[in-house]
Design a protein that fits this description.
The chain is built from 2 helices and 4 strands. With about 90 residues, it is α+β, with helices and mostly antiparallel strands.
């Protein structure tokens, strides 16, 4: 994947796993199904026709996902694992 105009206005090439490539191809097809834009090179479409997703929108999505991940990590760290009557283990649900 090629990222243009990344941080520091640098262009980057990112290696992707085969599984991620399949997921991104599926996303690409689903986003363009029945819509104009088959020839647009952007993976993430913006709200304006023929434009990529804005930097601000991309950053908001990233930081929202990061916060969700942090909440899950904190919840898992704080939730003690206890043995039940049958000797199994269970996590406390938040």
């Amino acid at each position: 994947m090629r990222v243009r105009h990344g941080k520091g206005a640098k262009e980057r090439v990112l290696p992707l796993s085969a599984r991620l490539i399949r997921e991104l191809e599926s996303y690409w097809r689903a986003q363009r199904l029945g819509r104009a834009g088959q020839d647009i090179p952007w993976l993430f479409l913006g709200t304006k026709p023929r434009e990529p997703m804005s930097r601000t929108t991309g950053q908001n999505i990233y930081y929202r996902g990061l916060r969700r991940f942090e909440w899950v990590a904190v919840a898992e760290k704080r939730a003690p694992v206890r043995g039940g009557r049958q000797g199994g283990t269970a996590r406390n649900e938040p």
